[in-house]
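[audit] Reproducing an earlier prediction to check determinism. Same input, same settings, fresh worker. If the tokens differ from the archived copy the diff job will pick it up downstream; this log only records the rerun itself.
[audit] input (285 residues):
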Amino acid sequence: MANIRDIKNRIESVKNTRQITNAMKMVAAAKLQKSQANIIKARPYADHIAQMLMTIKHKKNQADSRIFDDAAKAGKRALIVVTADRGLCGSFNSLIIKQAVEYLKQHPKSEVICIGKKGYDVLKKRPGLVIKEKYLGLFNEMNFAASAEIAQFIKNIFFQWEYDVIDVVYNHFKSIMQQIITVKALFPIPDLVESEGISVLDFIYEPSMDEVVAELSNKYINVEIWRIMLESSASEQGARMTAMDSATDNASELIESLTLNYNMVRQAAITKEIIEIASGAEALS
């Protein structure tokens, strides 16, 4: 049985841990609130631009752009893997990495672009896997300039014919308790899931269809990467907030258990001392 001093030290240690996990939960909640506000602003714009490009593709206009190529005839693929730079967020990173590994099993010749340190640390050890580029430490200070740099790199490697398909795997933020693992096609532009509400009329493009498509595709990838990073950041903070809340509750339960054990050991020690004193007194008499 542990002595009183050991149990007391353990209680103090767990209390310190509870303070840390509770503080991390509060920090995650503050960051989550900011990320949610940014997502609300970014989602409608990103969705509308993607819808416009999908509509043009649905109408089968002969625009001179690679973004309308047939993905089924694709050759070389790249996968963008978006994870966190830090841990202590439950299964947030492990589920993304697991999904990325499944993708690589289906498309074994794919190369990888890592956004986030956790994914890079794991995937760089995978035999034969080529990591085309990595971006680390971007989630500490989220800004559009960082996502624009990534978007420019993706545009370059796609339009310079280095890859025929570029997909992304990330956590889509639904709620604090739920993040959805999403594998999404960036280039070429995916087909519309539903064609309801699409006008049967031809559009008039000004100055020209190719120029409109080029401008839309430029805006599309810029805002899509920004949106994906915001979704991932909010999902990370939601997962960390949930994990730290659970850790804080577990620490409280452990403190209660240790305190009960401490009281039992202390009571046993007092009882033992009383018995020894009584036995000594009886022996003297």
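[audit] rerun output stored. Observation attached for the diff report: Residues 147 and 226 are 5 Å apart (CA to CA).
[audit] end
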